[in-house]
Amino acid sequence: MTLRDVADRVGMRPPSLYSYIASKNELYDAMFGQAWNECLIAMTECAERLPDTPRGALRSVAATFFDFCVEDLARHQLMNQRIISDFQPSAESYAPSVQALDLLRNVLNDLGVHDAPSVDLAVALVGGLIDAQFANDPGGDRWRRLLDRAVDMYADNVGL
Asked: 100 vs 24, 32, 103, 136, CA distance in Å?
């Protein structure tokens, strides 16, 4: 992703871009925070209308995050992969990502899943399917179609 791509994404054009943003990393930081804020909004809306069954709730949360991520490869990479070697988000921009993970922990806790390794497994499972979708069927649904099955395997493993 070039600086021009980033500027186009946020609707700014040089030289006006440089009157607002001091560096590339500051721009990446703003985009990181915006992306996680948008994700947090989507995940919060999802959590407010979860199905009554544990598996239904898990499927809904997983699908919401999966669909949000596959909507935009560059955003997903900025949010979830270390593609910019010298970029580290500020505490302010990082906060919504922590809140999104806390939301997942709360949903899992409400379903009876309390241990950190099981939360990590849920994150890795859905994240792996997202990565496989981008790598093997960008724009398709090959890996999205496996999401409910993967959630069911996870639910079996954690006793839901």
From this structure: 25, 13, 5, 27
Cα separation, 83 vs 121, in Å, equals: 22
Indicate the class that CATH gives domain 24-158. Answer: mainly alpha
Q: Residue 86 has which token pair?
A: 């010298």
- pLDDT per residue over 99-141, tens digit each? 999 999 999 999 999 999 999 999 999 999 999 999 999 999 9
The predicted model gives 79-99 an average pLDDT of 94
Buried b (16+ CB within 10 A) or exposed e, 117-141: ebbeebeebbbebbeebbeeeeeee
- Report residue 30 as tokens: 């703003």
Residue among 157, 156, 159, 151 nearest 66 (CA): 151
CA atoms within 13 A on the CB side of 47: 20
Query: Rounded distance, CA 131 to CA 109, Å?
Result: 26
Contacts with 127 (C-beta within 8 Å, 6 or more apart), sequence order: 80
The pair of three-digit structure tokens given for residue 70, joined into one six-digit string: 């596959």
Cα dihedral value 23, 26, 30, 36, nearest 10: 130
What pTM does this model have? 0.86
